[in-house]
Structure formats: C-alpha cells, structure tokens
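Case study.
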Amino acid sequence: MNQQISPSLKIVAAVAALFVALPLLSIFVRVPWSDLGDMLSQKSTRDALLISLQTSIIAAVISGIFGVPLAWLLARSESRGLSALRVVCITPMVLPPVVGGIALLTAFGRRGILGQYLYDWFNVSLPFTRTAVVMAQVFVAMPFLVLAVEATFRQSDRGLEEAARTMGASPSRVFFTIALPAARPAIIAGLALAWARSLGEFGASITFAGSFPGRTQTLPMAVYELVSIDYRLSLVLSLVLIFISVGVLAAMRDRWMTGR
Amino acid sequence: MSISLQGTIGRGEFERTLNFSVADGEVLAITGPNGSGKSTIIHTIAGLVPLRSGQLQSDNITWDAPDSKQWVTPENRTCAVVFQDLRLFPHMNVMSNVAYGLRARGIQKDEAIERSQKMLKRVGLSSFESRRPTDLSGGERQRVALARGLVLEPRVLLLDEPLSAVDTASRAALRELLPEVLSGFAGATILVTHDLGDVEALATANLSLNQPINHQNPAGSS
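After joint prediction, the assembly is written out as follows.
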C-alpha cells in the first residue's frame, strides 16, 4: 500500500484526527494525578461508579436475554409487518436519548399508560428508581445488540438448521443447539456494545430516573453535575469512563479494528 | 410401500409432476441433469420444501398432502438425509454430530453415544470421535454424514449425490462401503446421482429425469 496521498488531503485528515484526539488528551493532561487516589476513594465517586457498573451490567444482560430472541424473530420470521417492527425496535438508536426518557415516563410514569396501573394495582412506582436507570439503559442499548445479532442470524447457514430439523430437532432445539452457537461471537460483541452504551447512557436515564446521588446517579450524571461544582473531580470520573470505553474497544479489536 | 410420492414438486419457477414408490430394501436411483429437480425431490420428502399438489406417504402415513392440508413437520418424519453439501455441524465433534439426531429424538445420552459409536465403527471412523469436521478429509466427512443419517434407523434414507464431494481415491472406497452399509439397512433408499456408475453399483431401480425442465412434465416411472 504505497499509494500516493495528496498533501492537502493529508492535512485535512490530520485535522480530523487531531480534533478527536486533542480533547481526549486534554483530560489526561489536566487530570490531578497526585490526588487521583483520594478522589477515586471518595464515597460519592464510589457510589456513582458502583451504580454505573451495576446498572449497566444488568442492562446488558437483560438486553441479551430479550434482544437475542427478538433478533432471531426479525431475521427469520416471514410474517408481514416485520419491517415496521424492525424500524420500531431500532428507533432508539437514532432517537435523542432525552426523548427516550420522556417516552419511558409516558409509558411507565405514575400516570403513564402502563405505569398508572402498576401504581394503582401494585403500588409500584418505577420513575426515579434504580430500576428506572436500568430500563432507560435497556431502551437505548438493546437495539445495538439486536442489530448486531440479527445481521449474523441472517448470514448464518440455513442448511445446517434444515439438516438439524430432518434429524428430529424441534425449531427451539435448532435455535439453541445450532443457531445460538453459530452466533456466539456476534452475541458477545453485541453484549459488549450494549454494555458500553448503557455505561455512557445519560439523557434517557436522567429524564426517567433522575440524578440522585447514591440512588440513581450514574457516572455520566455525576460528571455532568460536577462540571460546575468540582471540575477536577469531574475530570477524574471522565478519565474512568475513558478507560472503560478504551477497554471495550481493546477487547473488541479483533472484530472492529481489522481494517486491513 | 415404504415411501410413495404422487404429485407435483416445485421450488420457485420450477415444477415437475412425479409418480414413484420405493419399497423396503429397494434402492431407487434418481438420475438426470442439473436443474431437473433431483435435490428438490429429496427436500420435498424430507419436508424442507412443500408439495405443490398430490400426496407423499410413508408406511401409509401421509406426510404431505396440500389438498387435504395434511403436513408432518421435518422433525417428525422417519427419514434421514445425507445432503449433497453434507451440512455437518462445524461447532460439534464427530461424535456429537452423529449423536445429535438421537438426542433430539429423546434418546438418553449413554444410549445415544453407544449407538453412535457402533455406527462410526461400521463406517470405519472409530478413532475419529473427538475430531471436528474441518479436520477431516472429504471422504471422512462423507462417512460421518452417512453415519449421522443411518444411526437414526430411518424408514427412508435419502442420499443426495453421496459421492460428489469426494476425491477419486475416497470415491472408490466409499463405493465399496455404501453397498455394504445399505445391505444392512432395512428401509427404502433414494439415491440421487448423475453418475451412471453409482446406479450400476448401488441401485435396484432407476428413475430418469431426462426431460428438459418444463412446467408440468409427464410423470416419471419407477
């Protein structure tokens, strides 16, 4: 690959790369490294970190449990209206997250379409709870998993599934013994993607769950609130999020970074 | 009759009317050029492609009769298919491939393994149990596919070009093995091939689909 690239294109490309790299590097430069240990061990920091880890892992698992069968349905069902269902299911990917939060409130809020019955009949109120944090994360993150896994199901070898049927396997046995193992790499990638997206979730969660320290406040919410109060601490929390994101990227590098 | 098909098979634009039956112990060879519907016959009997009209019966049980809306799902048909492209499960070893159908049909693990071991011995693959299909030669893979079908003790064995994916050397070995294995098989066999040598060596009857691919061909003969 010794293709000539014109100098002017090189300059434009360098500007683009710098534009992304400079802000990230700035955090590394400005983070108060000497106080890092103290800041990370503060209770508020630990709380936000733990809530973030807890909710995002649960959200990723729920996305997997419900998203994989949904991906299978979208990939294999031949019923009409499926393309409409697909559009609905992946809409949260392009929706402004805050709108997602409003939508969740409208459905599950105390006077929401479903939420009013949950409250009246079972005295269950979902908004502004940690459950609400998880729900908001699933809402936003599950489509990423569904899309990744559906693409793999579509490409997977139907011949193997047919062979299994002729050997006596029911459709559900075919799903669990043939289709799922074949899609395992995509499911793992989808889980990582959903987890990373959940961890970074801000708009939908803060709208639907609020930002109550120690209860619903996740790392991104803490970063946002601290910007005006304790800028140095918000830098430290940002650093934590950067490390986690880069970690996901590194773990997935075989899948995403095989550009050559 | 172990298996009988009277009716019209089809896939996409292709359609062909057929009438044949195969009794226990018989080997019906189906020959004809590419696109004459040989594989579609196999897939129709296995339940992967529905009949367009007419009926398909095995041991007086109707598997497929669109006019009377009768349909037996593929997993409930007592037939076994050796596909042209084999379709071995790549994520399972040889033993798991062979035992898969037995387990799917509710047979206990120990018995499934025991029966699979016997069958692998019969096709000469005793020491291959823990290998993956990708580590096998073409001829070995073919024998796994055969064992995977026969171990189910089907009433009808469907062989789609069983010697096509194999190099010349393994072909000779398989041609010796096949009659031996088939002679121990009590049910009906349908053998799709374009090789007249296979017909000579293996078949007791021949259905030739030599007519060009047309809609509504006259019925074949058995």
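Observations recorded in class. DSSP finds 14 helices and no strands in chain A. The radius of gyration of chain A is 22 Å. We will return to this complex in the next lecture.
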